Amino acid sequence: METKRNLKYFTKKGINILLVVGLVICLFGAVLLVEKNTRNFGLVIILVGSAVAVYGSGAKSGEAEIDNQIHGVIKDIPEQAQIKHEVYERHFLKILNPVFLKGFDYSPEELLCKKGPDHKFRTQAYNAAQLYFTKEKIYIYGKHICLIDDSEEQNYEFASSILYENVDKAYIDPVVLKVHGRDVKAFYFVLKLKDGTEALRITVDYGADVDKAADDINHATEKMTILAAEKAADKAAKRAFLREQDAKKAAEAK
């Protein structure tokens, strides 16, 4: 992570002075090119101005660089999730595709937030999580990323697995946050358990795919919970039958 450049992205405001100075120097050098006697000096001035402009433009990260850094960290999460949980494609539930969630995090106490020219609000923190579904469980693996601090405390992984019968519901929780005096709308993807706790709460890039993911998880959870109950009842019936047979054999032996 380019933590120092990323910090400048969030904290530096207004005009990039070095870039402007570099361009002005280049303009002055271009004027000197007109006269033959000052042409060589003009070339030198342009080179100096170009160097200053390049340095100024590279003093802080831009939106594309921020996004590329994030992509570099999260692109391997699906594969890492399989390795972490030892769950692979052959184990996946057929009725529910894997779900990948991602989005900027608005929870840091000292939140840095900037609205880019693409009208997207970026913060110094980012979360991403991969959800896999088997016949028995939902597997979660994700990462929390900090763009301005490369410490292990701020950059960590999280993982868990949940039985379907313990899941209450998946839903989207929209919230309006005050960020530097302005209202910013954020969306949380929540996986709530029947005991009232949350197995997952993660900010997401909201869209129709996120709504569909929540609906699909709820549908699959309901179906797999019923199947688990039927399977448990079947096992209980078989155990009861075996106990009954053992009791008959014991009675006949007396």
Summarize the structure.
With 254 residues, the protein is an alpha+beta fold. Helices cover 44% and strands 28% of the residues. The model has no long low-confidence stretch (mean pLDDT 87).
What does this structure look like?
By secondary structure, this protein is of the alpha+beta class. It is 44% helix and 28% strand. It has helices at residues 3-11, 17-32, 39-57, 63-74, 77-85, 208-253, and strands at 99-105, 113-115, 121-123, 125-133, 137-146, 156-163, 167-179, 182-193, 198-203. The strands form three sheets. A four-stranded antiparallel beta sheet has the order 1-4-5-6, with helices on one face. It has a three-stranded antiparallel beta sheet with strand order 7-8-9, covered by helices on one side. Helix 2 runs antiparallel to helix 3. The longest helix is centred in the last third of the chain and has 46 residues, at 208-253. The radius of gyration is 29 Å and the shape is elongated. The chain starts with a helix and ends with a helix. 22% of the residues are buried.
